[in-house]
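pls design
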């Protein structure tokens, strides 16, 4: 068997979009399936641990540096054979390469940042960005471009803790034609809000994504006539926002359908460092009101709501920004549980003596088989486990190892309790799977393993299947339901709860927070073509823009609480780990976009006395909720020549007719709410030769 062919690899979605075409992911019933009994026999034929770990076949024997991840170790070895080999390996891995330089992330301690930057430049490299991390320890993540032949030299420096391939975004969606409005507007009661004038005016929404192909052709139709674009991807210009994928364009289309007057910001990123820079720009430079992200990572944080993404979301929240993010699409592509080596082989036993968990569908050639594993050892990172990939040969009826990840976890700075392994499918194997093994550990850890876009796993755990970012406490995390009634829960939609402290299996919090709509139509993906929690998330961002416009005094907590309170409960009564608070719905809009006031009374008290005028804005409903709002009053006209009608302190209405005058006049008062909505109250008043004054009160409106 051509092992080189089998071992071709691709760096796929360390930042994985939680959407995609479900039609490409539907479970396939294999034409030829291995019976369960024979599969158990096959699993038992995994090479004995003594062979895999013997000095002559020890996978780590070929690793050049414990401070390089597995992929960079492979690259460093290839670079010794010449630049041609290094370029070939980098291309096979899908790494970002320009000339002879490769993009890397360099972990350093904060005091060493300047010194390491100088070292990178001395080696012919360039630092392009940085992200300050507080968890699991204070460290700086430098994003840099380094000559491929110099990665080992860089890692050997005492001030460098670790060098790894970036956790970056790679999206492969394809556009389809057709000018379309999403189907969920009526389900969310958006039409009623539009009718009353709530269309997102004055609200700023940032869509942070991996690309916005074709957005410029949709300006003034599927998107606002004017948008602001910003690109944080290394080596790209602002015009390159129109590149890589239509995914972000489709997200923006949904938001525009719901909030057509909102200001739109299209922000392109490729790594977690880029995300940090994008958030800083959105908070400090633009001052957006809402962020929408239909993306997630794996293995960068414990999944317990702590770490770099939680810090970014909390920063945005503190600035008054509602951040809607996707829960993930890996409910059936996830396994979690405690390491359990029942038969003493060094490998985890998923059930009985079975040591391989595999994708329960046949997989054609040319697809990336990517596996992420993380475990609960984030404080000191001393529990060292490995991840290997396997293919089941229908011809030989046995599992054969086709790849793996063997990063070092020995307590050194910069390390993570996670592994990332990849292989390109060749069609030579009927099934593809993974195994977990102990390398050097003194306790059985809790694992969370993801195989994005490859499902269902034969041994699947639906709970705790959230992507990193979706577990952040301050994120408004979105699950997916079908857009058509009865709004069925989408089988792939990630399920909570979050992990417990440090990545444990118990003690987590309820997530997601709310469920929105998938299988909707956009210009970019065609009729019914946009699905996943990627499609669901911008629905939440769009309706949040309407709420921000209607209730400009609301805090971000109040906006989220409003949407949660209006959600239509689904699944288990009350908040649950599939639907959150329920299906997204705006409920009844504030009853008056142009208020209709009751007439002013036909009497006014004399100067020195006052009354509360009955400026009722609606017919009281027994189930209505109210809030008190200060209106601004103005006098629209004074129909009686010479009569003085004015306002004092925006509270006291005063009428001063000329001496000797008496008769009937009309007083027209316009009241304007903080959102700029106004209505007029007109009264015919019989007056005599004296001054009248009335007190204009706070006026309540529907919440």
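designed seq:
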């Amino acid at each position: 068997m051509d092992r080189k062919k089998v071992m071709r690899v691709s760096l796929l979605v360390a930042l994985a979009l939680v959407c995609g075409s479900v039609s490409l992911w539907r479970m396939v019933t294999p034409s030829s399936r291995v019976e369960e009994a024979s599969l158990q026999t096959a699993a038992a034929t995994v090479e004995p641990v003594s062979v895999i770990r013997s000095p002559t076949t020890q996978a780590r024997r070929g690793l050049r540096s414990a401070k390089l991840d597995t992929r960079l170790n492979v690259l460093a070895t290839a670079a010794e054979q010449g630049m041609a080999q290094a370029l070939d390996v980098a291309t096979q891995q899908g790494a970002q390469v320009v000339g002879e330089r490769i993009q890397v992330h360099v972990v350093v301690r904060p005091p060493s940042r300047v010194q390491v930057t100088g070292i990178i430049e001395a080696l012919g490299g360039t630092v392009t960005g940085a992200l300050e991390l507080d968890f699991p320890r204070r460290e700086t993540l430098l994003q840099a471009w380094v000559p491929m032949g110099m990665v080992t030299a860089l890692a050997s420096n005492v001030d460098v803790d670790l060098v790894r391939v970036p956790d970056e975004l790679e999206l492969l969606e394809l556009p389809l034609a057709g000018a379309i409005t999403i189907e969920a507007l009526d389900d969310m009661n958006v039409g009623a809000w539009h009718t009353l004038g709530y269309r997102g005016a004055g609200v700023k929404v940032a869509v942070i994504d991996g690309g916005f192909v074709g957005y410029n052709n949709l300006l003034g139709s599927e998107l606002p006539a004017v948008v602001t674009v910003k690109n944080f991807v290394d080596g790209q210009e602002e015009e390159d926002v129109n590149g890589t994928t239509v995914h972000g364009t489709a997200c923006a289309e949904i938001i525009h359908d719901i909030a057509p007057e909102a200001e739109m910001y299209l922000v392109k990123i490729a790594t977690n460092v880029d995300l940090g820079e994008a958030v800083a720009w959105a908070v400090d430079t633009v001052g957006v009101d809402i962020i929408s992200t239909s993306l997630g990572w794996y293995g960068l944080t414990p999944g317990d709501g702590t770490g770099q993404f939680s810090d970014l979301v909390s920063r945005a929240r503190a600035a008054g920004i509602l951040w809607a993010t996707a829960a993930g699409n890996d409910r059936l592509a996830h396994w979690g549980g405690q390491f359990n080596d029942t038969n003493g082989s060094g490998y985890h036993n998923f059930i009985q003596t079975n040591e391989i968990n595999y994708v329960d569908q046949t997989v054609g050639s040319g697809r990336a088989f990517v596996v992420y594993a993380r475990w609960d050892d984030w404080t000191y990172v001393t529990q060292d486990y490995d991840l290997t990939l396997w293919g089941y040969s229908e011809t030989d009826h046995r599992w054969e190892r086709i790849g793996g990840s063997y990063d070092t976890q020995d307590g050194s700075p910069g390390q993570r309790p996670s592994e990332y392994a990849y292989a390109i499918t060749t069609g030579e194997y009927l099934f593809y799977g993974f195994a977990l093994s102990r390398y050097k550990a003194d306790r059985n850890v809790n694992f969370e393993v993801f195989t994005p876009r490859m499902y269902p796993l034969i041994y699947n755990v639906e709970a705790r299947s959230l992507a990193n970012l979706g577990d952040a406490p301050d994120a408004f995390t979105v699950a997916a339901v079908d857009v058509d009634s009865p709004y069925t829960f989408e089988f792939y939609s990630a399920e909570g709860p979050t992990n417990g402290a440090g990545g444990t299996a118990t003690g987590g919090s309820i997530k997601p927070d709310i469920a929105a709509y998938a299988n909707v139509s956009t210009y970019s993906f065609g009729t019914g073509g946009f699905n996943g929690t990627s499609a669901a998330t911008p629905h939440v961002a769009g309706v949040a823009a309407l709420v921000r416009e209607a209730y400009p005094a609301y805090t971000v907590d109040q906006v989220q609480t409003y949407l949660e309170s209006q959600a239509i409960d689904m699944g288990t009564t009350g908040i649950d780990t599939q639907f959150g608070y329920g299906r997204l719905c705006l409920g009844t809009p504030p009853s008056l976009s142009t208020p209709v006031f009751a007439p002013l009374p036909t009497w006014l008290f004399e100067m020195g006395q006052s009354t509360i005028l009955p400026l009722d804005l609606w017919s009281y409903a027994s189930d209505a909720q109210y809030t008190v709002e200060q209106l601004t009053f103005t006098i629209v006209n004074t129909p009686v020549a010479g009569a003085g009608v004015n306002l004092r302190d925006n509270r006291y209405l005063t009428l001063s007719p000329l001496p000797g005058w008496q008769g009937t006049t009309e007083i027209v008062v316009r009241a304007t709410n903080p959102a700029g909505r106004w209505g007029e109250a007109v009264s015919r008043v019989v007056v005599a030769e004296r001054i009248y004054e009335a007190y204009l009160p706070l006026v309540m409106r529907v919440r």
